Amino acid sequence: MQPPRRCLLLFLLLCRLLLCGTWEDLEGTFTIRLLQTSTFENTSFVDTEGLGLLEDIELGSLDKHTWTIRFYQPWVRPALPRSDWDAIENMIKIYLQQFSHLINEGAMQKDVPYPFVAQCMAGCELYPNRTSRAFAYVGYNGQDFLHFNTDNATWLLSQDTSLSRYVQAILQNYTAFSELVEVLFNDTCVDDMEMLLHYGKAALERQETPMATVFARTPRPDQLLLVCRVTGFYPRPISVAWLRDGQEVPPGPALNTSAILPNADLTYQLRSVLAVAPHDGHSYACRVRHRSLGTRSLLIPWGNSEVVLIAGLGAGLLAAVAVAAIAALWVWRRRKHQQMEESESRNSILSKEA
After folding, report:
1. Same domain membership, residue 234 and residue 131
2. Quick count: other Cβ atoms within 10 Å of Cβ 223?
3. Each residue's pLDDT tens digit, 57-67
4. Residue 79 lies in a domain
5. What pTM was computed for the model?
6. In total, how many domains does the chain have?
7. Mean pLDDT (the chain, rounded)
8. Is 258 helix (H, G, I), strand (E, B) or coil?
C-alpha cells in the first residue's frame, strides 16, 4: 500500500509544472496547498476531489468526472502554455488510477473495512528571505495518519496503528524517492512559486475594509452581553479587542471571540462577545485593527454615557442653530424696520420741499 508516496509525488509534479516569476514587491509569508480527498465506497467505486490554494485563494479544482482541471482565477492558466497543462492533466489521470489501485490493494491486505476516506495535503510556505518550509500530511477517515519530515526525509507516524506502521515501512524503503523529495522541496518550491506569486500579485494584495457594529443582548437580568460584529474584511488576519475605560480587556471567561468565518462575497466575518454587569459604570468600546486600515483603528463605542454625549451634542448643536436663526431673524427685522423709518423720513422731507 503506497498511497502517501503517490500523493506526494503528485504534489511534486504539480509544483514543478504549475508554480512558476518574481515576488520582491510582495511582503509576508505565502503558503500553497494541494488538497485531495478520496472516498472509497467499495473496491470498484471511488469519489475523488482535488483543490489547489495559494493562501486562501482557490486556484482551481479537479473535475471528479473527467479528472481535468477547472481554473478559478483568470491569471492561473496564462502562467503556463497549453502543452504544459495538458501534461499535468495526463499525469493527474495516471496518478489517480494508480492511487485507487494501490489503496484498494492495501485495504484488502490489511482488512480495512469499506467505506473509508483517504486525504492528502501537501505544500510549502515561502518566507520573505526566500527560505521555505515544506509539508506533507496523509489522513485516514478524518484523522492524522502520517506526515513527512523534510529535515531528515522520513515519514513519521501521526497515529500508532498497525496500518500506519505498515505504510510507514513501505515509504521508508524508497530511498531514491526520499532524495528526490528533498531536492524538490529545498529548491523547486522556492524557484517555481515565484511566477505564480507574480501572476497573482493583484489578488494577493486585495484589501477590503472591515465594517463593525456594536449591540447588546440581555440573556438574564444580571448579565449584559456586548456584541461586536465585524464583517466584510479581507485579507483574513484581523485584530478585534474590547476596551474598558480605554484599557484593553484581557482574555478570560467573560470574553468570547468566534473563529474567522467566510462570507459569500469572499470576505470574512467574526464576532467578539463581552459579558458585563448592567450599569457597572464603565465605558466600553470595540477596537478593530486590519491591514486595510493602515495605522488607523476602528473604534466603536457602546454605553449610555456615549449615547447621552452624542444626544447632548446633537441637542446643543440644534439649540445653537435655533439661537442663530432667531438672532438672524431679529437682525433682519430690525434692519427692515430701520429701512422703513428712513424711507418714511425721506418721503416726508420731499413732500415739505414740494
Report:
1. no
2. 13
3. 999 999 988 98
4. yes
5. 0.71
6. 2
7. 79
8. coil
